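PT: before anyone asks, these are the final sequences, not the draft ones from last week. 945 residues across everything. Please model them as a single complex and drop the result in this thread when it's through.
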Amino acid sequence: MSLLAILAPVLLLVIVLAFVTYAILFERKVIGWMQNRIGPNRVGPWGMLQTVADVFKLLIKEDVIPEKADRALFKLAPAIAFVPAFAVLAVIPFTETWKFTDFAVGLLYYMAVSSITIIGIMVGGWASNNKYALLGGMRSAAQMISYEIPLVMSVVGIIMTTGSLNLNDIVHSQKHVWFIFPQIIGFLVFLIAAVSELNRTPFDLPEAESELVAGYHVEYTGFRFAFFMLAEYVYVFAMASLTTVLYLGGWNAPFGLTIIPPIIWFILKFLLVVFFLFWLRATMPRIRVDQLMQFAWKVLLPLAIFNIFLTAVLKEVPGIGHFY
Amino acid sequence: MLRTEEMLLNVGPQHPSTHGVLRLIVKIDGEMIVDAEPVIGYLHRGTEKLAEDLNYTQIIPYTDRMDYLSAMTNNYAIVHATEQLMGLEIPERAEYLRVIVMELNRIASHLVWMGTYLLDVGAMSPFLYAFRDREEILNLFNELCGARITYNYMRVGGVKWDAPPGWIEKVGTFVEYMKKQMRDYHALITGNEIFISRTKGVGVYSKELAIQYGLSGANLRVTGIDWDLRKKQPYSIYSRFEFDVPTGKTGDLYDKYLCRMNEVVESLKIIEQAVNQFPEGGSIMGKVPRVLRVPEGEIYVGIESPRGELGCHIVSKGKDKPWRLKFRRPSFYNLQILPVLLKGENISNLVAILGGIDIVLGEVDC
Amino acid sequence: MSHEEQNEKELLKEEKELQPEPSADAKTEKKEGEENNPVKAEPGESDAPVTAKPGLPPKSSVPRAPRAAGAGKARPAAGARPRPAAKKAEKKPEEPSPLQPQLDRFLRLLKDRLGEGAVKEAYINRAGSHIPTLVVDKEHWLSLAQLLKEEESFQFDYLRLLSGVDYETHMEVVYQFYSFAHGHQIAVRVKTGRDEAKVPSVSHLWKAADWNEREAYDLLGIHFENHPNLRRILMPDDWVGHPLRKDYEPLDKEV
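LR: through. Structure below.
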């Protein structure tokens, strides 16, 4: 038991790293196809080893720390950003049996721990002693704090229906109807807020290339930079998993197709979410920083609150009440 | 009261959105721009100085490097000014070739603008689509004159190369293809909610301000002034073609985008007519003495480049080299208004407004 | 063979070729005739009274044959460009430019408002698009500029060109204005001495002049008085000399 308790996280880390490796390749390939390009195809067959080569390059690069940077914080920041990204995976149930904890407040844990990353990004931006990095860090903090509120609010509907913060219970209660249908407003708010939390297009302001060059990690090179990138993609993994668990029925098979193992269902749904994130990147321009804030506070938050209200009301309506 | 501190942000000369080596010293308060000062000259190659030691034909390749996105119009500016000063007559076929390549180049230039502008506001794909279509134009140029960016195509008195067999038909095919592509662009960009919210009502200036700052091209027309030198002071054979001059209503960035996209459509119209009227056979070079000695005099001619009024001021003392050659570069004039537009905007709008002006640093610095 | 050598050779060849056939091709312009024309512009000394001289175009453009009478300034290149007929035609008095009346009108108004002597010389620049051109001394430039901008019947609100020229005897700043209200155009050549090249700035009247004046200062060393920010713009701040001046010594002559 104790050996498994040690080995399983290591295995998960390996899986996550493999995912990140191929998610990056997948992203580049998908966007490439969408843009009439081929994408990476030089390293390994079909470009399969491209990311491996990229990571290797990052690891052997000189580790540059700007002279006027706050050295201790500069070194600490990538770790602060990465650790929570990995820690949140502890509560995600991949299938009935493949899970790490059966945590009563799993959803709350996810939300709470994931917001620690903001500190890492802000510290990184601040410690770099670079104005672009500082602006990027500030934007990031403002954005992530603003979007965390609609993100949490949007899942309250699910919590009300399930009566639990335990992610296992949430999946179990989606045996018949996935929450995406009764909670469609909540789902849309959640999805938009999630994209924003991930700092992905169209909400990639903290690292907006055309404005802030690279935002908070402009001064980072080598493996420290790799850590930031890793954190970003692990969050893609985590957020796609969470979306699957909350709204797409987790490992539950649709249309009674239980012949296909639950893990496959989970992976399929999960990949759909991941693809959606990459698809957005090829399509959308970047939203402006003030519009971003307005959107969070004036559109998403009221919608999320309305969703809570709606859930509460519909719960009492006979006939459809059992969906809520 | 909350006390905030202004800080200086140095944007460029190496920055992804300054379209070359423009440097902006921006004073910001938070993300709000208090003051901005453009610093130029990083790409100054002294074209005007070099031209004083070159004869008129030798200057042409140097003009390619000014506005490197529409080298054909630059070529034309110098040869047109020289021809006017010498009173040369240009053969029909050369005139048609010139108009076709200039309009193709205008489309290519606007495509690059559109792509990079969308890249500035954060959308990645239109850039690649734009470059795909621009590639078609560059292939046509490649076939015509063997170069893709710096053509060195026009000569005083005509053009250097005749259209290879089948080239004119290919241009016709391209026009049809491009018309279809325009629909795609409108579907992808014009209706995009985020793009609209990024550009509507941003970077607005009045007619008076535009005139005051000597803006030209789409930057002037967007305020509603109908000023296109191809129409107002026609040169070459533009008076033979039917086309409209798109103008804006509100003067914001979205209007600028629409203006330029419509200009592409108008250019396609011109090319279509030119292809249909294209004369069979005939010379491509007028009667020009072997050594161009331009009569003593002074001339200024302005032509409509994709970026605005591209002028050429020649002072000749009757030698084979110009005494003084001055280019009125539209980007140089257009860039001046930037600090006015930036005041009170935030950093995100900085790149949108700067991109909207459509500068080419090779031309600003000359 | 270097470019220059080639050039030299071609020049010689051209000279030889042209000598024995003075009027073989009547349609070719005879540049020889123009070059040998004794009339040379010595603008620094000309104190000609302010009069528009119809039929007597600027000295520098004497050799030019008449252009199409119909070619209005708004349509310079449209229609057929007439060829200078032949050498003989040059001796005939030129037809008055279609824009001569406009220039006369400008001049009358200027004389009324600024008095005699403000405009040193006025002519139609027949090269290209017949642009009415005024030559003024720098002393009168500021008041003239004010008038051109603000006077009801001028309203030259659009600065199309600001260019500096070093004529070795003197310096000139050339302005091209356009009026959106009236659709007319004018060129102004402001003369100044060479050693102390100073011209009043007009950047307060036309904002477009701001950078252009800086450019002219940078490259030609013309000082624009009362310019708010007269610094180098294209060359590095610590550059010595003004490259477009004819007496400028390049760092490396070979380049």
